[in-house]
Amino acid sequence: MTITAPQITTSTTARATVRSIAPERLRVELDGEVVGFVDIVGQVHVALLGNMYPYAVEIAQTLDADSAAHSVIAAAQS
């Protein structure tokens, strides 16, 4: 089952979507393409940049999913 989170507004015309793909993992998509993931480890949300989970690189740690997703989106757009 896939759960779609509310759309994240980006600074460009790109459309970002965050989907739950496992109890402790979110997938971040930008215009339908996977750009990263967010792992939930206790209270910490780890932002990972990359379109394939095994090769994604950690870019940030935050205390909420929104900030982690925004970190992934900002990194993917730069």
From TrEMBL:
This protein's name: Uncharacterized protein
